[in-house]
Design brief:
The structure is a homodimer. Chain A is of the alpha+beta class. In chain A, strands 2-3-4-5-1-6 form a six-stranded antiparallel beta sheet, with helices on one face. In chain A, helix 1 runs antiparallel to helix 2. The relative contact order of chain A is 0.30. The interface between A and B is large, with 49 and 49 residues.
């Protein structure tokens, strides 16, 4: 049973105050993209008032997101990739190093699980992932 | 047991060809944001070569994403919201109307589930969601 995408949902608690810093969130995204072997198309980091930061990155292989709740020391990360060339779990090590969470939980969910006729492409094409940005 | 966010993972199969259209993906994001009662901060839609579209939206309440694999008739959606004012499941009806999937699966995952000391804010603040963009 094959799947089109892999999706890591990462829960990080007891993070330090850097989860409220725009530059650090941006750096975490950039470093995570490199670590997992993905290709960045575009990223955007937004800081809320009075606190909290969201970072979102469009990847050639899907997306990566970070959302922080500094008042709870909580950071949520999603790493959604397609294809077989990326190693999404490497992003977790990047987040651990940068945000030093006291507790971390990682859940992996297969996206686009192909069953029955869904395993057959509807059109002729050689694309496995999104090979060309 | 409270949580900071709700995350819908939506799997849609047997979608029509509009999942490969940039304008339609953009419209679906805009309509879904309105339907769930969220506030759009910024969105970006990207088309891959030879096919496939990604749409990502930063929300005041977290994010919304769409990724399509037209060759499989497959569309993946994520609706991640915080706070209690949004109704994320309303996005599913928008996607159903626009993309007419033959099969749809919706999984809801609580993000930032607060247990023990995590339920106590680390700093004084009245933020429930991200109230101010």
């Amino acid at each position: 049973m094959a799947s089109l995408g892999r999706h890591l949902l990462v829960e990080m608690w007891d993070c330090d105050s850097r989860i409220d810093d725009v530059e650090t969130i941006g750096r975490a995204i950039d470093e995570a993209v490199v670590a997992i072997g993905a290709t960045l198309v575009q990223s955007h980091v937004h800081r809320y008032s009075p606190q909290g930061v969201t970072g979102l990155a469009v990847l050639a292989e899907s997306h990566l997101s970070l959302h922080s709740w500094p008042e709870y020391g909580y950071l949520a990360a999603d790493v959604f990739t397609c294809g077989t060339l990326t190693i999404p779990r490497r992003a977790v090590a990047v987040f651990e190093e940068i945000f030093a969470p006291g507790r971390i939980e990682v859940q992996e969910i297969e996206r686009g699980v192909q069953v029955g006729d869904s395993a057959l492409p509807k059109t002729i094409g050689s694309r496995v992932a999104h090979p060309t940005v």
